[in-house]
Amino acid sequence: MKTRKGYKVYPLTAAQKFHFFYLKFSPKKEVLNIGTSLTIQIDIDWNVLKESIYKAYDRSECMRVRFVCDKDETWYQYVVEKEERDIEFVDFSEKTMEEAEAVMKGWTAVPFSEQEIPMNRVVMIRMPDGYNGIYLLADHRLMDAQSLIGFLRDIIELYSNKMYEDVPYPKDMSSYIEQIEKDLAYEAGSRAQLRDKEYFYKMIEESEPIYNGIGGRGRLDMEREKSGNPNLRAAVNVSNSVDADIDTFHLEEEPTKRLMDFCEKYHVSLTCLLLMGLRTYFQKMNGFDDVSINTAIARRATLKEKKSGGTRIHSFPFRTIIPLETKFIDAIYKIRDKQNEMFRHANFDPVQYFAYRSQLYPAAPGQTYEPMALTYQPMTLQENGLEKLNGIRYKTKWYSNGATTQAMYLTVMHRPEDNGLDFNFEHQVHAVSRKELEYLYYYLCKIMFKGTENPNLPVGDIIKLI
Questions:
Q1: What are the tens digits of pLDDT across the range 54-72?
Q2: CA 347 to chain centre
Q3: CA-based, 20 to 30 A from 314: which of 41, 92, 215, 393?
Q4: How far apart are CA 146 and CA 165, in angstroms?
Q5: What is the pLDDT of residues 126-182, one digit of tens each?
Q6: 78 Cβ partners below 8 Å, 6+ apart?
C-alpha cells in the first residue's frame, strides 16, 4: 500500500469519482463547493467554540483528508493526524444581513484548487441579527449534506456540553477510513457489485426513457427538428454557461405537517411523495406517462455510515411509467416499491450506469432524459441534540457557489425554526428562470396536497383539478 508523508494512501471511491467526473466539464472549479452557516440566538464564548471546533476536527477523519495526484494523473487521498490551522473569526455585526450573506456567498465561490490542502474551511461568525455561530465551506468530494449536518451538530454538542450542565458529551463519530475500505472492497469485483450491475443493466435495457421539459415539450421538439429524427427521445436542457444561483421557497409548518402525517399514515417516505408530485407535474406539462428524474441516494443505512462523514451519495435516474387512470396512492406505492428496490443496489457506480446507458442509447453531447435532480434531506439538527438547549433559537442558511453543471437540482430540507420545508432550487440561471421555478413549485404543492387529500383519485383527475 502506498504512503504519503507517513500516512496510508487510499484510492477514490465511486461516489468521489462521480464528482471528479463532472468537475472535468465545468470551467468553474467552485462547482464542488458547499457553503452553509449555523447561527444561534445566544452570546457565544468564542474560545470555547474554537476549542469545540478543534475537538470536532479530531473526532472526524473526513475533515482531515488531503487529496494528492500522482504522475499518471490518478487521484488518491490520505488522512492527516491533526488539524492545526487557525480558526478564523469574522464580526459582521456592523454590516447589514444582505452584506454579511454576500460575503459568505463570495467565500463559497472560492474553489479548493490546490493539492494537499484542507478541503474545508470553518469561520466563527457574529451576525447583524444577534445570532452567532459558524460558517462551513466544504468540498463535495469529501462531504455531503448529511456529513455537513453531522459535523455542525458535533461542534454544537461539544460546545453545549462545556457550557450547559444537562447536555451530555456526544457519542464518538465513526471511522471514515473504515467506510471507504468497505466501499473499495465492494468495487474490487465483489459478488454484491456483480448483482447490482446485473440489476441496473437489466433496468436500462428495458427501453429508452424520454425527456420531459419544465415548460413542456419545446426543447424536445426543437431537438427533433434539428436532428431530423421525429422519434428522438433525448434533449439538451443545460445552457452554455454554468453560472448558477439558489432560489428557495418556504412551505409553512402546518402544511408540512399534513404531508408528513400522510406519509406516516400510508407508510411511505416524503421522498416518494416529492417524486410523485414532481413526475406528475412533468406528466401534466408534457403529456407523457413516462417520466425520469435523477435522485440522490445517501447510502447511510447503518449508524456507522451515518456518523462516518465523507460523501456517500450515488445518483441514479428514477423512471416511472404511470398511466393517467392510476390512483394517486397506487402510484405512490409503485414509487415506494421501486425506490426500496433501488436502495438495495445503490452501491453501484453511477458513472458505469450512465456509460452503459449512453452505449445502449447513443445521444448527442449534452443530451439527457432527466430535466432535474432531487434530494430530500430528512436529517435535521433539531432531532440531534439541539432540542435540549432550552428552546434557544437557531437557523441555517445555504449559499450558492455560483456554478452548477446541471440545469436544476432541488434539495428539500426541514427548517430548524419550525420544521417546515425549504425547497432549495440550485439552477443554471440561463437554463431555468425563477419564474419557471415558481410555476413548478406552485403546481408541485397543488399536486401533493390534492393527492394526499384524495389518495384514491386517478392521476388524470388530479391533473384536471389543479
A1: 999 999 999 999 999 888 8
A2: 16
A3: 215
A4: 28
A5: 999 999 999 999 999 999 988 998 999 899 999 999 998 888 999 999 999 999 999
A6: 3, 4, 5, 7, 8, 9, 10, 65, 66, 68
CB 460 within 8 A of CB 447: no
Torsional class of 219: left (φ above 0), alpha (ψ -120 to 50), beta (otherwise)? alpha
- Exposed, middle or buried: residue 6 (CB in 10 Å: 0-12, 13-18, 19+)? exposed
- Which residue type occupies 341? E
Rounded to an integer, what distance in angstroms lies between the CA atom of residue 29 and that of residue 244? 13
The rounded Cα 200 to chain-centroid distance in angstroms is 22
Provide CB contacts within 8 A for 420, sequence distance 6+. 250, 251, 252, 253, 255, 256, 414
Is pTM beyond 0.70? Reply is: yes
Which candidate, 305, 309, 16, places its Cα nearest to that of 153?
A: 309
Report d(CA 163, CA 49) in Å as an integer: 10
